[in-house]
Structures are given as structure tokens and as C-alpha cells.
Automatic annotation (TrEMBL):
InterPro entries: Metallo-depent_PP-like (IPR029052), PdeM-like (IPR026336). It comes from the Bacteria. This is Phosphoesterase. It comes from Sulfitobacter undariae.
Amino acid sequence: MNGYDFSLSGAQLKALWSGALWWPEQSLMIVSDLHLGKSERVARQNGDPLPPYDTRDTLNRLAADLALSHARTVICLGNSFADITPQDSLPEEERQWLYRMQEGRRWVWIDGPQTADPIEFGGAHLTELPLPPLTFRYIAQSGTSGEISGYYHPTATRETDGRVLTRPAFLIDSNRVILPAYGTHTGGPEVRITVPDQLLRPEAVAILTGSPSTPIPMLR
């Protein structure tokens, strides 16, 4: 699998091009902010229309990551569903697809402040998961180390061969990783605006999703 290899609190991790985080020693895949059903919710609430295939695209990328990794455990960090009633907003085909991905795996939903509680999809439902030397929660907490979180939907900008690329990005320092949003229609403004400076140490870098996985210094 293509990505950026690094160490956090002694755990060897890989930030994948797709936006997922891979912990090979634990056979563990982590994704954040799936926002499944987002385009359907926006259309139903008479907002700006979005292309209707975001959930299918998100699930397709997740299925590809799981097929390549053979992950035994999946952790979904917060806001996995865009609606409080995911059973009503997801088409049957997509619900069945998600069920199939869960078969034979430990599946953990980490709750966020606005996360729909997807009880019908099974798995464990936790506010955080300590798995030493790492801890998984939705929103980062200052003064912690070995922390994996999401929430901020970070993006970063890099100039390559005269082109300026802005993409979802991992934020990494010696204490934590903040994951990009995995959902197709979920993004955010520049990282220097969205993420409080006190959460990240001076050596923090951003790793853009996609190729190549080159660390760039965080802008302050």
C-alpha cells in the first residue's frame, strides 16, 4: 500500500494516499469523518445540490483499502454518518455493502458530538479507545501523546512542478496524528485556520493525500 511511513509513541504507522491510517502490527485500519449519506441529506434539506454518488465512492475506496490490507480491525473516528437516521438515508445496496465489509472484522465506531449512532450496523460504540501505546478519539485533547483523532478535516497546499495542489492532509507531530476526512464530499479550509496551534508541536508536518507522500512543514 502506498503512503508515508512514520512512528508515533513507538507504533509504526502508514498514512495512506487514500486518507486512511494503517497500523500493520495490529492489522488495524483507521478512517475519520466518513459522512456517509451527505449528498442525500443536503438534497433533502433543500441545500445546494451535491453529486449523488459520494457514499458509493467513499465505500468503494474503503473496500479497496480493506482488500489490500486484509485489516482485522477497523476504527471509524466520529461523524461516520451525515444523518441521525442512517437507516433511512442510505440506499439498501450501500447498507448491505457496509454489512459485508464488517463481516469477520472487529469494527469500532468512535462517537463524535454530532455523530449518528449507527446501532443497526453493529460493532462497538465508544467515546474513545485506548490501545497502548495509542489512544483513539474523535477530537484531539491538548497535553496528550500517542493520540489519533479526526474532526478538523485538515487540508494543506503544496506547489509541485508549477502546480498548486490543495488536498486533504494528515497532520503529524511527535504527540499525535490528526486524520483527514475520508468522506468524498467532506473537506475544510487551510490547516492553519482550523487546527488550534496549541495542539501541534513546532515540528508538525502535513502529509497530503494522494501521490507523492512528501511531508511539508505546517504553516503558522
